[in-house]
Amino acid sequence: MIGYNLAGYLIFAFVTTITPGPNNYMLFSYGRNYGLKDSGKLMAGIFGGFMVLLYVSGYSIAGMVTRNPLFEIALKIISSMWLFYLAIVLSKIQSGENRDVKSRIGFFGGFFMQFVNPKAWVMAIGGASAFLPHFENIHWSVFVFAMIFGIVGIPSMIVWILFGDMISRLLKSAKAQQILGIVLFGLMIISIAMIWI
Predict the structure, then answer these.
(1) For 105-160, how does the pLDDT look when each residue is reduced to its tens digit (9 = 90+)?
(2) Mutual orientation of helices 118-131 and 69-92 as an angle, nearest 10°?
(3) Regarding predicted confidence, which is higher, 24 or 90?
(4) Residue 152 and residue 159: Cα distance in Å, rounded?
(5) At 185, which helix (H) or strand (E)?
(6) pLDDT digit string, tens, across residues 77-90
(7) DSSP per residue over 15-75, as a string?
(8) Which residues contact 7 (CB under 8 A, 6 or more apart)?
């Protein structure tokens, strides 16, 4: 993965990690409600879960499994249900003094969400298909593939958290918070619809 392939992979990783999706909507909401420091566990969970997906994809297990139509349909149904639940949670979280600690998703929620997050699967499988380096040692190839994606992904996650934190400072009224919750809910519903298109 030298020269153009590395450049192409970096662009692919940046574009896919910075663009809107379930992870970024959740990070935005957490940034809005808890700030960067208190969003660390969620970010670590998303990172850890996505690293597992990258390794699975790098070793081609995901490619074999997703060729099974029944598995693909089951994954779509589970993904839709989980994302709908997240849409409800994100729409109800309010920033300010009345933040509910129980409503936090945390490390394990972020981690396990990756396995039903269709965008994460597409990123991992698409990246492995197009940009997996071909070293003599397959383990080294998968490690390099996953680490580069992770290194690019961390700043993207931080950007979404900081964006949410900035919005919380600008939108102080309960009405503005409610409208933002509705917008986040709508964006998650669009994400669900995109699974089936």
Answers:
(1) 789 989 998 988 888 888 888 778 777 787 788 888 889 889 999 899 999 999 99
(2) 130
(3) 24
(4) 12
(5) helix 174-196
(6) 876 777 787 777 76
(7) HHHHS-SHHHHHHHHHHHHHHHHHTHHHHHHHHHHHHHHHHHHHTTHHHHHTTSHHHHHHH
(8) none
* Nearest 10 degrees: Cα torsion 145, 148, 149, 153: 170
Is 110 or 20 the better-scoring residue by pLDDT?
110
Q: Which two tokens stand for residue 189?
A: 């519903």
Residues in the chain: 197
- Amino acid occupying residue 12: F
Q: Is the pTM of the predicted complex or chain greater than 0.85?
A: no
Q: CA-CA distance, 36 to 13, in Å (whole number)?
A: 22
